[in-house]
Amino acid sequence: MNANAQKVLDAMKKAGKPVRPGDLAEQLGLDSKEISKIIQDLKKEGAVVSPKRCFWAPA
C-alpha cells in the first residue's frame, strides 16, 4: 500500500462514517480522480466497502 492509499484509509477510519471521494480529496489535498482510483484498489484488497459512500471495513 502506498503512502496516499494509507492516508485515504486513515482518513476513512478517522471519519468513522461513510465518506465521498470528493470529501476525501478536499480534506487530503489530492485529486478526486486519484482518490477514486485508490478507493478501487482498496476495494480489491478488501480494505474498504463501497456501496455508494466508502467506509473502512475492519478485517
What would you say this structure looks like, in words?
This protein is mainly α and 59 residues long. It is built from three helices and two strands; from the N terminus they run αααββ. Helix 1 crosses helix 3 and helix 2 packs across helix 3. The protein is globular, with a radius of gyration of 10 Å. The model has no long low-confidence stretch (mean pLDDT 86).
Question: What structural category arises from helix and sheet content?
Answer: mainly alpha
How would you spell out the order of helices and strands? HHHEE
CATH architecture assignment: Orthogonal Bundle
The poorly predicted ranges are: none
Individual helix count: 3
Overall pLDDT:
86
Number of domains: 1
At CATH level 3, the topology is: Arc Repressor Mutant, subunit A
CATH class assignment:
Mainly Alpha
Please count the beta strands (DSSP E, at least 2 residues each).
2
Strand order of the largest sheet: 1-2
Q: How big is the Rg?
A: 10 Å
Describe how the helices and strands are arranged.
Elements: H1 3-15, H2 21-28, H3 32-45, E1 48-49, E2 55-56
Antiparallel strand pairs: 1-2
Helix pairs in contact: 1-3, 2-3
Short description:
By secondary structure, the chain is mainly alpha-helical.
Looking at this protein, list some descriptive labels.
Arc Repressor Mutant, subunit A; 59% helix; mainly alpha; single chain; globular; 59 residues
